[in-house]
């Protein structure tokens, strides 16, 4: 499309989207089938069939829902501080949010992917990306805590992430914004994009046992914007497919300038080959990078933060058989691989059809060097028709993402025409379409990115809510809509609000993970350096102006609960050990004037909060979690005296 045509197209598209969202479509309320309530109702005391891990978008967190009920179980803090759980406020968790830019307490979490064994969720970990300050996180599915965060160097915006290979060999992250590689030479004019800006794709290895991350290597590519990706599976295992936009390599007014070319690309990468080259010692060590690697230790209950300074980079242009470009219409967003791995679905945000590529054809074309005569910055470009399985005709407007069921069907979300469309992967025939309220972004079928989708449910994650819920001021709840996809026609069952903007999600069968959930931390394995071994050891110690309070909690008292001899301006560390060994028995801790948050300490765990009293007086503290009938009694006092006062440092509970 020429710029003018494009603008007209966009105007039409916007008009369509406005007309969809501005007034309530007729029959929106009655589109729900008669027994939907029964099919989503999980009676009190009964469990949901699936856990669903949902991205929280610009809240930086992840939330856990049950399906089909849509009940919210938990918000897991990942890239943003969370005062409810003291994430990023307690001394133990602060290192988790350290980066090469220092402490970064916020990010934008878009994509969630589970760890896989043989292409199926194995229930060990959930991976998540941060979009802004490029990082990857690993969440442990026994503790529902973020166990690890690694920063990604040479990257500007980590949108295209975290995509997991068939056996979680790698979690893959690609740069959204190509930028000059890190280091002093990156100070270049921005209009030198074409010469100096490069893409980087990171292969982060995952230790089979511990899950620990390590950036194995990076691939350097031409300066493209990578958007989304999927690892191959089944027949295409060993490959990676990444959608790329801005093939124009423009650096300003992308809205127009990056929409010039009729086709952008899906980059196909032979990652097994790349791994081979890397293991054979190919590539260069780049030593001017700085990236954080933060780990949470479940025995010391403490995170560590280190800065790494080295990464191995392989330039794809130096190898003939690493990367290929498949032309894909108009700024592709999703690049999704079918359960068998045979088909790759591209979703051009501005396209009015869905191209479906065939892995077999792609391989044949590579085998026959059936390429366009001109390379793109050194990378072979396939002929569109040579890789194409076929196009889904007239599917809707603005395709974004595709997921799959267990019966050979694909489901694509359409942002502009606000609908979910079901089509047959082989025949490419459209089978059904249902409206979403409104403007669906991602969609998720239970197991829909695995080798054997569980099917049954589809959730549409919508960008606009408008009239669906009671109004709450200018900002309305983001929302999810649950569809039953077990029959020929999709049936809308339920609307439920989400925490933050939901991008992607993963549904895992409850039976896969529910029995692995940790109940308590064994206090005998608590190796926290400031642990208190029982009430007899509870005490207060001073070293200069640093005061350490070794405190225990158990229903329904804190030990010690009377503390004197603290001076204004002291640095006071409350090391709280919860000596309970019962499931679901955390205690909280808060003290007047604390400038951070409360603490919430799990049974058997030690956590620390820092407090600097700013005035003289008596400061009450208390347990913040209603833990017992005498929870309100679970409290104490600190006496703060002027600097240099000779009030002796004392502490006790009960008898002085
Ligand atoms: Cu929301 Cu996956 Cu960031 Cu599409 S992206 S919608
Ligand atoms: Cu412990 Cu309330």
UniProtKB/TrEMBL annotation:
<dbReference type="InterPro" id="IPR026468">
    <property type="entry name" value="Nitrous_oxide_Rdtase_Sec-dep"/>
</dbReference>
<keyword id="KW-0186">Copper</keyword>
<dbReference type="Pfam" id="PF18764">
    <property type="entry name" value="nos_propeller"/>
</dbReference>
<dbReference type="GO" id="GO:0030313">
    <property type="term" value="C:cell envelope"/>
</dbReference>
<keyword id="KW-0732">Signal</keyword>
<dbReference type="GO" id="GO:0046872">
    <property type="term" value="F:metal ion binding"/>
</dbReference>
<dbReference type="InterPro" id="IPR011045">
    <property type="entry name" value="N2O_reductase_N"/>
</dbReference>
<feature type="signal peptide">
    <location>
        <begin position="1"/>
        <end position="22"/>
    </location>
</feature>
<dbReference type="InterPro" id="IPR008972">
    <property type="entry name" value="Cupredoxin"/>
</dbReference>
<keyword id="KW-0479">Metal-binding</keyword>
<dbReference type="InterPro" id="IPR041114">
    <property type="entry name" value="Nos_propeller"/>
</dbReference>
<protein>
    <submittedName>
        <fullName>Nitrous-oxide reductase</fullName>
    </submittedName>
</protein>
<dbReference type="InterPro" id="IPR051403">
    <property type="entry name" value="NosZ/Cyto_c_oxidase_sub2"/>
</dbReference>
<dbReference type="InterPro" id="IPR015943">
    <property type="entry name" value="WD40/YVTN_repeat-like_dom_sf"/>
</dbReference>
<dbReference type="InterPro" id="IPR034205">
    <property type="entry name" value="N2OR_C"/>
</dbReference>
């Amino acid at each position: 499309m020429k710029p003018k045509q494009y603008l007209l197209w966009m105007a039409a598209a916007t008009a369509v989207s406005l007309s969809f969202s501005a007034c309530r479509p007729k029959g929106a309320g009655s589109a729900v089938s008669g027994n939907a309530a029964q099919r989503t109702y999980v009676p009190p005391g009964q469990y949901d069939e699936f856990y669903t891990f949902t991205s929280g978008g610009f809240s930086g967190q992840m939330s856990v829902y049950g399906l089909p009920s849509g009940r919210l179980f938990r918000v897991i803090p990942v890239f943003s501080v969370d005062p409810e759980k003291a994430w990023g406020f307690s001394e133990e968790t602060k290192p988790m949010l350290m980066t090469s830019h220092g402490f970064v307490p916020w990010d934008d979490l878009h994509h969630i992917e589970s760890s896989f064994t043989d292409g199926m969720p194995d229930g060990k970990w959930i991976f998540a990306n941060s979009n802004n300050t490029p990082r990857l996180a690993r969440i442990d599915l026994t503790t529902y805590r973020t166990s690890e965060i690694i920063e990604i160097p040479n990257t500007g915006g980590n949108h295209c992430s975290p995509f997991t290979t068939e056996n979680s060999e790698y979690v893959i992250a690609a740069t959204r914004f190509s930028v000059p590689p890190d280091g002093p030479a990156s100070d270049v004019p921005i209009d030198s994009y074409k010469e100096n800006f490069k893409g980087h794709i990171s292969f982060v290895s995952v230790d089979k046992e511990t899950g620990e991350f390590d950036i194995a290597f990076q691939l350097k590519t031409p300066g493209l914007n990578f958007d989304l990706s999927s690892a191959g599976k089944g027949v295409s295992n060993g490959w990676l497919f990444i959608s790329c936009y801005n093939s124009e390599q423009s650096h300003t007014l992308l809205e127009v300038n990056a929409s010039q070319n009729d086709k952008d690309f899906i980059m196909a990468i032979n990652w097994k080959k790349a791994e081979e080259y890397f293991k054979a010692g190919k590539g260069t060590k780049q030593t001017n990078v700085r990236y954080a690697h933060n780990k949470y230790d479940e025995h010391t209950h403490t995170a560590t933060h280190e800065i790494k300074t080295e990464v191995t980079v392989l330039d794809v242009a130096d190898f003939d058989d690493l990367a290929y470009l498949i032309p894909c219409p108009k700024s592709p967003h999703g690049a999704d691989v079918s359960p068998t791995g045979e088909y790759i679905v591209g979703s051009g945000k501005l396209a009015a059809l869905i191209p479906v590529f065939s892995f077999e054809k792609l391989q044949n074309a590579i085998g026959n060097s059936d390429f366009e005569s001109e390379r793109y910055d050194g990378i072979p470009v396939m002929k569109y028709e040579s890789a194409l399985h076929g196009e889904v005709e007239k599917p809707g407007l603005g395709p974004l993402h595709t997921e799959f069921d267990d019966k050979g069907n694909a489901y694509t979300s359409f942002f502009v025409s606000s609908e979910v469309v079901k089509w047959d992967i082989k025949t490419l025939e459209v089978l059904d379409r249902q409206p979403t309220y409104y403007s669906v972004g991602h969609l998720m079928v239970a197991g829909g990115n695995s080798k054997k989708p569980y099917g049954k449910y589809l959730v549409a994650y919508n960008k606009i809510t408008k009239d669906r819920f009671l109004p709450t001021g200018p900002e309305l709840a983001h929302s999810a809509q649950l569809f039953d996809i077990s029959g020929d026609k999709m049936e809308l069952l339920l609307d439920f609000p989400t925490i933050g903007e939901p991008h992607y999600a993963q549904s895992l069968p409850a039976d896969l993970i529910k029995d692995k959930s940790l109940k308590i931390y064994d206090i005998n394995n608590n190796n926290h350096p400031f642990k208190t071994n029982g009430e007899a050891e509870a005490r207060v110690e001073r070293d200069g102006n640093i005061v350490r309070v070794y405190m225990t909690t158990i229903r329904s008292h804190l030990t010690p609960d009377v503390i004197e001899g603290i001076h204004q301006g002291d640095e006071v560390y409350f090391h709280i050990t919860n000596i309970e060994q019962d499931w679901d028995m955390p205690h909280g801790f808060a003290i007047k004037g604390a400038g951070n948050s409360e603490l919430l300490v799990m049974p058997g765990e030690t956590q620390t909060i820092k407090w600097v009293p700013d005035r003289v007086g008596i400061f009450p503290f208390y347990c913040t979690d209603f833990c017992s009938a005498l929870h309100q009694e679970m409290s104490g006092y600190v006496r703060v005296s002027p600097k240099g006062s000779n009030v002796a440092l004392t502490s006790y509970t009960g008898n002085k």
